[in-house]
From TrEMBL:
Keywords of the record: Cytoplasm, NADP, Oxidoreductase, Queuosine biosynthesis
Region described as Disordered: spans on this chain: 1-20
Source taxonomy: Bacteria, Pseudomonadati, Pseudomonadota, Alphaproteobacteria, Hyphomicrobiales
UniProt-annotated binding residues for substrate: 71-73, 90-91
Stretches with biased composition (Polar residues): 1-11
Organism of origin: Saliniramus fredricksonii
InterPro entries: GTP-CH-I_C/QueF (IPR043133), NADPH_dep_7-cyano-7-deazaG_red (IPR050084), QueF (IPR029500), QueF_type1 (IPR016856)
Name used for this protein in its record: NADPH-dependent 7-cyano-7-deazaguanine reductase
Entries under NCBIfam families matching the protein: QueF-II
Gene Ontology MF term list: preQ1 synthase activity
Function of the molecule: Catalyzes the NADPH-dependent reduction of 7-cyano-7-deazaguanine (preQ0) to 7-aminomethyl-7-deazaguanine (preQ1).
Documented EC number(s): 1.7.1.13
Protein's cellular compartments: Cytoplasm
Pathway participation: tRNA modification; tRNA-queuosine biosynthesis
Length: 150
C-alpha cells in the first residue's frame, strides 16, 4: 500500500497560481520490472497568450514508459490546471511540461504532443520527447487528427 500522507491525493488541494508553484507528486511503479506505456490526455488544456492575454486552448497527449516512478494523476491535473492563468507561447508550455515530467519521473521514454487550436488562423502543434522507445512496446497514435477545424 502506498503511503499517501505526503501526497496531494486524498487531501484538499488548491489550484496552484503558477506552474512553478505547482507540486507534482510521484509514486513507485509497481511494475518497474516490465515495460508498458501509460497515457494521459488533457482535452481541455488552457493557457494565456503572453502578448494579448487571450486564452489559448490545446489537447495535450502525454505518453511515457515508466521506470521506477509514476506521476500521481491528481497532482498532474493540478499542475496542468495551473497554466490557466500562465502567459506563455504554445511551444514553451508544451516543452516545459514534458521537461518537468521527465525530470521528476526519469522515464525510459516520454513524449508529449500539444495540439493547439488556431490563433490568428494558424494552429501550432508542438511535439517533444526524451529517451528511446523500447522495441517491444506498442505505442498507439496519439489519436488527434491533423488540423481540419478541430
Amino acid at each position: 500500500m502506498i503511503d499517501n500522507s505526503n501526497l496531494q491525493l486524498g487531501q484538499s488541494a488548491d489550484i496552484p497560481a503558477t506552474p512553478e508553484e505547482a507540486r507534482l507528486d510521484r509514486v513507485p511503479n509497481p511494475h518497474s520490472a516490465g515495460e508498458y506505456v501509460a497515457r494521459f490526455t488533457c482535452p481541455e488544456f488552457t493557457s494565456i497568450c503572453p502578448v494579448t492575454g487571450q486564452p489559448d486552448f490545446a489537447i495535450l497527449v502525454i505518453d511515457y514508459v515508466p521506470g521506477q516512478w509514476l506521476v500521481e494523476s491528481k497532482s498532474l491535473k493540478l499542475y496542468l490546471t495551473s497554466f490557466r492563468n500562465h502567459g506563455a507561447f504554445h511551444e514553451d508550455c508544451t516543452v516545459a511540461i514534458g521537461k518537468r515530467l521527465a525530470e521528476l519521473l526519469e522515464p525510459v521514454y516520454m513524449r508529449i504532443g500539444g495540439y493547439w487550436y488556431p490563433r490568428g488562423g494558424i494552429p501550432i502543434d508542438v511535439f517533444w520527447q526524451t529517451g528511446e522507445m523500447p522495441k517491444n512496446i506498442w505505442l498507439p497514435d496519439q489519436g488527434v487528427a491533423p488540423y481540419r477545424a478541430r
